[in-house]
């Protein structure tokens, strides 16, 4: 979602180069927000 928003805003402000930069920044924001740590917690099985 951040990719779409920042690409649009970047394109409106900086044209094609702004859209490209906004897309790159938005992609990294999306990756950080949507990546789930796959750590498992629970009782130990000894």
Q: What summary fits the major beta sheet?
A: none
Number of helices: 1
Structural class category: mainly alpha
The whole-angstrom Rg is: 17 Å
Task: List descriptors.
46 residues; mainly alpha; rod-shaped
Provide an overview of this structure.
The protein is mainly alpha-helical and 46 residues long. It has 1 helix and no strands. It has one helix spanning 2-34. The N and C termini lie far apart (43 Å).
Structure described in brief:
The protein has 46 residues and is an all-alpha fold.
Topology:
Elements: H1 2-34
């Amino acid at each position: 979602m951040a990719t779409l928003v920042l690409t649009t805003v970047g394109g409106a402000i900086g044209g094609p180069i702004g859209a490209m930069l906004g897309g790159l920044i938005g992609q990294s924001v999306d990756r950080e927000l949507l990546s789930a740590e796959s750590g498992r917690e629970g009782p130990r099985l000894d």
